[in-house]
Every structure is written in C-alpha cells, then in structure tokens.
Amino acid sequence: MAITVLVVDDQEMVRAGFTALLDAQPDIQVVGQAGDGAQAVALAGELKPDVILMDVRMPVLDGLAATQRILAGTTPGAPPRVVMLTTFDLDDYVYAALRAGASGFLLKHSTPDELAAAVRVVAAGDALLAPSVTRRLVEDFTRAQPVVPVTPTRLTPRETDVLRLIARGLSNREIADDLVLAEQTVKTHVSNILTKLDLRDRAQAVVYAYESGVVIPGPRH
Question: Structure pTM?
Fold first, then answer.
C-alpha cells in the first residue's frame, strides 16, 4: 500500500511542488494539503495520513502548536509521523517539535530524492535526523540549560553507550562499527532503549539524551 502524506505549508507553490514530487513516486500518495496549522489538525483527523510534512511558521496556528495537537492522540488510531519543514537549519520551533513527538525535520531546499526518502524513513518508524544539523540544533538549545550528567538506571551500560551515539546522530551501521557489534545487535539495543525509556523514536531519544545529561553539548564525550 502507498504511504499517505498530508502536505502543510502556507505557500501554495511550495505545497504544489511537494505534492507533485511526492505523487510522482510509485509508493507515495498525497491525500491532502493544508495552508495553516488549524487546517492541518482538522485534515489529520479526517484523512489519517501516515506522514505529515509540517511547515514551522504559518498563520492561524503554527506548525508547533498543530503538531502538539495532532500528536496528543485526541483522535482514534495511531498518530501520524510528523516531519517539520523549515527554511532554517537552526530553529527553536523545530527543537520544541521534536520534544512534542515529531519524528524529525527537513530543510525546504532538500532535493526531491531527499524529500521522498524522508517520507519513507519516518513511515517505516524511524526518525529523520540529519546528524550535523540536528546535533547542532539540540546542542545550541541545551547549552544554555545546565544539566547534571546521569546514567539512566533502566539501561544497561551497553545501552547507555548506544544512546550516546544515537544522540551524536550516528546510524545503526555507524554505531555497530564504533562499538564493534553486529548491526542487528545494535537494532536490538535501540529497541530496548526506546521501550525502557518510553520513547517514540530516535528523535525523542536524542532529546532525552541531551536533556538528561547523558550527552553533554560540545565536543564528543
């Protein structure tokens, strides 16, 4: 079955462009468009898309508020995966959206292939984390907030190691190479981390790691 997508942006040309690009993919179908956050909330409940591409800055209701409402689980069924769209790679709204449960973010000047890949990644249940940009965004936000390093008591030492590397933006393959583990073993550790910490996906794991002090902003620890 095709991955269903709702495109949300206050610029009609942007919506039309994204829709045309995604509809050209054999496994993706755009089922709706919205020009502001309020329309997005309404259409999300009506259409129940698999993925929502959500602009950050919009009139009536911005993307952050819309994401919070959609992911609050006020409608029956599993909530959609939300990918925030932004023109800027550093945006406090995007960080707040990750905290609210968004599965990642995408820069509006991304290529058509990157756009389609982003939809497939989040639809498959993973998080869309551009490592350098996401890491810089979270680090800039948390640098002003003093944190006391902690080790989550629910995690094993190896799971804590994996969490630190997730927060640094590494893929499962890169984590496996770094820790000299099989990739499948890393996948198991990631699944255990999300379950034990009651996190939805890797995006929330990144936020948790920085806010709890498991990873300290700055050079690699």
Answer: 0.72
83: phi then psi, degrees, rounded to nearest 5: -115, 120
The last residue of one of the domains, among 72, 106, 133, is: 133
Using the 3D structure, point to which of 133, 157, 182 is the last residue of a domain. 133
Residue-number span of the structural domain to which 75 is assigned: 3-133
Cβ-based neighbour number of residue 150 at 10 Å:
10
Query: Shortest CA distance to 184 belongs to which of 174, 192, 193, 176?
Result: 176
Could you read off the pLDDT of 132-174 as tens digits, one per residue?
A: 555 565 566 555 555 555 556 788 999 999 998 888 778 888 8
Q: Is residue 97 part of a domain?
A: yes
Report the 10 Å Cβ neighbour count for 10: 18
Query: Is there a single domain that holds both residue 157 and residue 110?
Result: no
Where are the alpha helices (H) located in 72-201, listed in sequence order? 92-100, 112-123, 131-143, 157-167, 172-179, 183-196
User: Token digits for 142?
Assistant: 């948390």
Q: Residue 74: how many CA atoms within 13 Å on its side-chain side?
A: 11
Q: State the CATH number of the domain containing residue 74.
A: 3.40.50.2300
**Scanning the structure block, which residue is given the tokens 């997005």?**
40
Looking at the fold, whether 10 and 118 belong to one and the same domain comes out as yes
Are the CB atoms for 83 and 128 separated by under 8 Å?
A: yes
